[in-house]
Write a structure and sequence with these properties.
This protein is mainly α and 73 residues long. It has 2 helices and no strands. The protein is elongated. 0% of the residues are buried.
Length: 73
């Protein structure tokens, strides 16, 4: 039980110390350091996700279907 009381007091002291440092204009320890700037991503061409949404694929299917209509199996 004494250990829990001591831990609670320690946490309270740390919180008060951080608030006092922030009030005096000290370093803000609650924020993360600034990240270096990232390079912009290269825009990739947008392609349809499914083949049946791809106009080029559909044209090729139609061409093959027309070509195969007259062929005997």
């Amino acid at each position: 039980m004494v250990v829990l009381v001591m831990m609670a007091i320690a946490v309270g002291v740390v919180v008060l110390a951080m608030r006092a440092a922030a009030a005096q204009g000290g370093p803000d320890v609650t924020t993360r350091p600034a990240r270096p700037a990232r390079r912009p991503r290269v825009a990739r061409p947008i392609r349809p996700l499914a083949p049946d949404d791809d106009p080029e694929f559909l044209r090729e299917l139609e061409r093959r279907a027309r070509r195969d209509d007259g062929a005997a199996s």
